[in-house]
Design brief:
The protein is 42% helix and 17% strand. Helix 2 links the parallel strand 2 and strand 3. The protein contains 15 helices and 13 strands. It has a 7-stranded parallel sheet, sandwiched between helices. A 6-stranded parallel sheet has the order 10-9-8-11-12-13, sandwiched between helices. Helix 9 packs parallel to helix 10 and helix 9 crosses helix 13.
Length: 372
């Protein structure tokens, strides 16, 4: 096989989210010297650890075009940026990742006009509701992607339906499990004790955890209000928030307003997420929408019970330790959170493996798609 140049395009900035982790897992688990993989964002990279790993360990390049990024809206600025880049850098395969309908279609169109032969679109999320704006974007996107894309991937069937034409779902959609390194996410009490000690979380404290970008979709406002009520019933409670994002200032203001600052721990962006999961007692996941979130699979692997919004796909529950609740019933959330204190924790890595989430399989699957 001749050398194949692959470009992973993320239509968002490179930070510490699940989409970036998925790309990293591809790079780490494809063992084919004929595949040379680079990464492009039209925006910026604030994850220097990933950039360093890609460039120093795997010989790839990370390209940042430094366009202005605004979440939501019609991101037309990425079209010209990607088109210009691909005219100057030739790639046989382009794998485009995004949670945005219009970003996927614009990047696909730019790739097609630049002469790329294999254009893979990857949907990583669903949405909250089908607004008029969404329906218009989806209608235009469907026309473009049917003419431009050669392959369609998604983390779940629902995520595929949200982004791609109906005709694609039954015939061309590849549902790709967001694999994880099962050895890293095995429950380890010694790490749990060490991290809780560092964070000053006592053995009898109820540690409520969340991992996710500080953005609207993750619904931190609901989580903070919930924690305030849980703490009133279970005073020895701590809230551990792992992540960062554009709403951090608003979240810090709400924490101050609720007068819970002494019980809330903000870690910022971290590279050792699994260590913080070990320290938690329950993972609370009140997202307004998701695709099939890899963080939910990771939490289950560590044996961490999850209380999740019923807006999140039921496909996430592969171990039986996920409880889905509607967001309009606070009392039920409070009761379920407090009851998890009695949960006896154990690793669930074997169940995760049985459901096809071993990260080593991700490399095998993506190599076949890149080379066929």
């Amino acid at each position: 096989m001749n050398e194949i140049k692959v470009l992973e395009i993320t239509c968002e900035p490179i930070l510490f989210g699940g989409q970036e982790m998925f790309i990293m897992n591809i790079i780490r688990n494809i063992h084919n010297d004929k595949l040379n993989i680079d990464v492009l964002t039209p925006y910026y990279c604030n994850n220097k650890a990933y950039q360093q790993e890609i460039e120093e360990q795997y010989g790839g390049k990370v390209y940042c075009l430094n366009k202005e990024f605004k979440a939501g809206g019609f991101r037309f600025n990425l079209f010209f940026a990607i088109k210009k880049f691909l005219k100057a850098h030739q790639y046989e395969v382009v794998h485009i990742h995004s949670g945005s309908v219009n970003a996927l279609s614009l990047a696909a169109f730019a790739s097609k006009l630049s002469g790329v032969k294999k254009i893979i679109l990857h949907s990583h999320s669903t949405g909250l509701k089908k607004t008029i704006s969404y329906k218009l974007s989806k209608f235009l996107s469907d026309i473009i992607v049917k003419k431009c894309a050669t392959d369609f991937c998604a983390c779940s069937v629902d995520a595929g339906k949200w982004k791609f034409p109906e005709s694609v779902i039954d015939t061309k959609l590849n549902v790709i499990n967001n694999g994880i390194n099962l050895e890293r996410f095995c429950f380890q009490k010694e790490i749990r004790d060490k991290v809780r000690s560092q964070l000053k979380i006592q053995e009898n404290d109820l540690c409520i955890g969340h991992v996710g970008r500080f953005s609207v979709v993750k619904n931190h406002k609901f989580l903070l209000d919930l924690f305030k009520k849980v703490k009133s019933e279970h005073p020895n409670s701590k809230l551990l928030l792992v992540g960062d994002g554009e709403l951090r200032t608003e979240i810090e203001t709400q924490i101050k307003h609720l007068e819970i600052g002494e019980s809330v721990i903000l870690t910022g962006e971290v590279t050792n997420v699994t260590d913080y999961m070990q320290a938690m007692d329950v993972f609370v996941f009140p997202s307004l929408w998701e695709g099939l979130p890899i963080v939910g699979i990771e939490a289950q692997a560590t044996g961490l019970p999850i209380i999740a919004s019923d807006k999140i796909t039921k496909d996430m529950d592969v171990t039986g330790i996920v409880k889905y609740l509607p967001l309009d019933n606070n009392d039920e959330w409070i009761n379920e959170v407090i009851q998890t204190k009695e949960y006896i924790r154990e690793s669930k890595t074997s169940e995760i493996r049985d459901h096809g989430y071993d990260v080593r399989q991700l490399g095998v699957v993506m190599e076949k798609i890149y080379t066929r």
